[in-house]
Amino acid sequence: MSAAACFPDVDDFPGPVIAAVTFDARGGHCLRQALLRAAHTSQPVIALHILHETARTAGLYRCNDRGEVLRPNADVARRLLGDFSAEIVAGIPEAGSVALRQLIVEGTPQRRIPEVARLTGADLVIIGGDTVRPLLARLLGRNTASAVQRRAPCPVVVIDRDGNTTSAQGFQEGRLHRPLPSAMQAH
Predict the structure, then answer these.
(1) Residue 177: is its pLDDT beyond 50?
(2) Beta carbons within 8 Å of 2's beta carbon, 6+ residues apart
(3) Is the pLDDT of residue 168 over 80?
(4) Is the pLDDT score of 140 beyond 80?
């Protein structure tokens, strides 16, 4: 039996929404947006955290290892993601119906987020970022959100620090099974 015969309407089985999660307000906005959309469209959500220490995040995992200095960063990140996700889910009544998977992946966000999107067949990636960056940073390719937009196999929505959609490259509401709730409308 062919795959087409088994799944006559692929749209009945939507891919996941990936929320690229950092453990800050912007990461919370991304996960909230993903959960609201998923509750409305019956899609699963992947809360994805990329384990990648930079000068900005140096020591994040060590500061949260609860005194277990030999505990691997991936274990600390897994616990942080679980706690962070639970806190966000608790604030969204509709989130109880959403299948939420948490995933920790090591590497650079610019490469690993599009890779996970491709491997999971994601319908949408929601990532925090700034669309207005200094010219030098843009020229040097240091804008993670822009790099993910260029490489992702699906639409990417960029959320700013206030929770607003700043960029929705490739995102078309018409592709959705149902229209988004008003809080999710792209600007």
Answers:
(1) no
(2) none
(3) no
(4) no
Inter-residue contact 31 to 37 (CB < 8 Å):
no
Q: DSSP code of 102? A: E
What would you report as the CA-atom Rg of the chain, rounded to the nearest whole angstrom? 17
Q: Number of helices (H) and strands (E) in the chain: give both, helices first.
A: 7, 6
The CATH label, of 3.50.30.50, 3.30.1850.10, 3.40.50.620, 2.40.50.100, for the domain at 11-126 is 3.40.50.620
Strands, sheet with 45-51, edge to edge from the N-terminal-most edge strand: 100-106, 45-51, 17-20, 124-128, 156-159, 165-169
What single-letter amino acid sits at 125?
V
Cα–Cα–Cα angle for 31, 74, 157, rounded to 5 degrees: 25
- pTM of the predicted protein model: 0.77
Break the chain into its structural domains and give their ranges: 11-126
Within the chain, strands assigned E span: 17-20, 45-51, 100-106, 124-128, 156-159, 165-169
Name which of 168, 84, 153 is nearest 116 in CA terms. 153
| CA 23, 120, 10, 100 torsion-angle sign | negative
Q: Report the mean per-residue pLDDT for the chain.
A: 78
Q: How far apart are alpha carbons 123 and 132 in whole angstroms?
A: 25
